[in-house]
Amino acid sequence: MANKLMHALQYNGYGGGSSGLKHVEVPIPSPSKDEVLIKLEAASVNPFDWKVQKRLAWPLLPRKFPHIPCTDVAGEVVEVGVGVKKFKAGDKVVGFVSPFSGGGLAEFAVVKESQTASRPAEIPASQCAGLPVAGLTALQALTQAIGIKLDGSGDRKNILITAASGGVGHYAVQLAKLGNTHVTATCGARNIELVKSLGADEVLDYKTPDGAALKSPSGKKYDAVIHCAEGFPWSTFDPNLSAKGKVVDITPSSSAIMTFALNKLTFSKKQLVPLLLIPKGKNLQFLVDLVKEGKLKTVIDSKYPLSNAQDGWAKSIDGHATGKIIFES
Ligand SMILES: NC(=O)c1ccc[n+]([C@@H]2O[C@H](COP(=O)([O-])OP(=O)(O)OC[C@H]3O[C@@H](n4cnc5c(N)ncnc54)[C@H](OP(=O)(O)O)[C@@H]3O)[C@@H](O)[C@H]2O)c1
Description:
Helix 3 packs across helix 4 (167-178) and helix 3 packs across helix 9 (281-292). Strands 3, 4, 5, 6, 7, 14 and 15 form a 7-stranded mixed sheet that branches. The protein has a 6-stranded parallel sheet with strand order 10-9-8-11-12-13. By secondary structure, it is an alpha/beta fold. It folds into 2 domains: 5-130 and 298-328, Medium-chain alcohol dehydrogenases, catalytic domain (Quinone Oxidoreductase, Chain A, domain 1, Alpha-Beta Complex), CATH 3.90.180; 134-274, 3-Layer(aba) Sandwich (Rossmann fold). Strand 12, helix 8 and strand 13 form a beta-alpha-beta unit. The protein has helices spanning 47-53, 125-128, 131-145, 167-178, 192-197, 209-212, 234-237, 254-265, 281-292, 309-318; strands spanning 5-10, 22-27, 35-44, 72-80, 92-96, 108-112, 116-118, 157-162, 181-187, 202-205, 222-227, 241-249, 271-274, 300-305, 324-328. Helices cover 26% and strands 28% of the residues. NADP nicotinamide-adenine-dinucleotide phosphate is lined by residues 46-48, 51, 133-134, 137, 162-163, 165-169, 186-188, 191, 206, 228-230, 250-251, 275-277, 316, 319-322. GO terms for molecular function: oxidoreductase activity.
């Protein structure tokens, strides 16, 4: 593939939203020793991608301009680095592109072998391209941060999942129901039936007073909250938590960090835990296997060809996606 060109979208500086993304022809990347080169069939956008463009990860990301955004990709391996053992050309895969190098919004991308999972050919790439960031975050929140056992063997827990119609939330509802949980979820009125169909036991419209107060319709106190929406002061969570209730905040604000510190300092039994995704290929494989077994699915908000990826980018920035926004090559 050396010296061949591919189509990609990149931005040259901070800001600009969807119109900051420019169509370009750039060299197809070459895989390093421990990387695979994937010809992409699908990719997905996460709020993280456009938050980087908005300078919210400065000075860490992006490393340099121009930058090809997006980390979540699915496709077929076309070349492997000399040290790669698990994959070969022709394998169908899903992967997490390093956010430091970037590269998912393109026809080809390189991914570390350790951040790649096999995908059965019969599962469409679009079903898997949403899994890396959103699926892994939901999995990490449930299993690591809260300690839910997805084989259903743990103690029964009452869980609240906010923004359950979003990328992370819709995976979190499905995964939580594999464990021994009662799930209360929040979403907009138009998505209540969808979120129930994903397994939520009770669903609150976030625009109603009870929804805004996060009050369980059946009066349950939450042992844990996976907080995928933004905002909400600690005073909203506190009365709804059980004695040792834990709020896992995936978009912690500065006041949430203060609450985290204060709760620690005062030895509060209730906790707020900020979560940062640590992506792992073996967990990605676990999620792909659940999709294969029919236990997890990706709700697709909309699909955009790479030639019109700006519209999908704008839709994500708008903040009202139901499930995942997918780009197809
Ligand atoms: N810490 C980490 O490592 C990590 C990893 C992944 C994501 N995140 C962050 O987590 C957040 C969620 O990500 P995502 O991919 O799930 O976002 P998303 O897919 O863009 O979420 C959109 C959904 O959220 C719903 N929503 C918005 N505000 C709500 C509210 N107050 N109550 C209930 N539902 C609400 C929207 O419903 P309506 O359309 O009805 O308004 C929409 O369906 C983002 O801020 C993202 O950056 C962090």
